[in-house]
Structure formats: structure tokens, C-alpha cells
């Protein structure tokens, strides 16, 4: 197909809810029985449509805590932000 992977943001709510609850948001799409494995494509359904996980939005309008990666600053927060990211990944 020419792609390594493809992610979908929208799906039927029943399918999305089921996949989310069973942690099957990712799958192999078998594009053609005739072409075999060369047509297989890794696909996934985004958990929150177009939205980032809670507290990991870095858009100006979100207001989530930024990553402050300078250890000399009092607000240095890389370990906490990394843990937030890891927790969000595990929750999906």
C-alpha cells in the first residue's frame, strides 16, 4: 500500500467503546487476500478522536503545564511530565 501505518480519528461509537474497553485500538488491516502480507497495514484508532490525552496538550489555548527542561530552574519538571506521558500511554 505504500504506508507503514494508518491511524483513524473517527469510528462508530459502539466500535470505539468496545475497542477502548478491550484495549484493541490497534490492529493489522489485511488489505487483500490475493496480495497476502504485502498488503497488511498496521492501523489504530485514536483514543480521544483528535484530542491529546488529559494534561498533555501543548497548544496555547489548553493551559496545560509546559515541559520545563532546564534543571537550573525551580520549575524543572521533566520527571513529572515524563511520568504523566507514561501513565497516559498505559491508560490507552
From TrEMBL:
GO CC term, one of those recorded: lysosome
Protein's UniProt name: Uncharacterized protein
GO biological process: carbohydrate metabolic process
GO molecular function: alpha-mannosidase activity
Lineage top rank: taxon: Eukaryota
Amino acid at each position: 500500500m505504500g504506508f507503514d501505518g494508518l491511524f483513524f480519528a473517527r469510528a462508530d461509537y459502539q466500535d470505539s467503546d468496545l475497542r477502548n474497553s478491550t484495549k484493541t485500538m490497534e490492529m493489522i488491516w489485511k488489505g487483500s487476500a490475493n496480495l497476502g502480507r504485502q498488503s497488511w497495514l498496521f492501523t489504530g484508532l485514536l483514543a480521544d478522536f483528535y484530542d491529546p490525552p488529559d494534561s498533555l496538550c501543548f497548544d496555547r489555548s489548553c493551559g496545560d503545564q509546559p515541559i520545563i527542561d532546564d534543571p537550573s530552574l525551580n520549575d524543572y519538571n521533566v520527571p513529572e511530565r515524563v511520568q504523566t506521558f507514561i501513565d497516559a500511554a498505559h491508560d490507552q
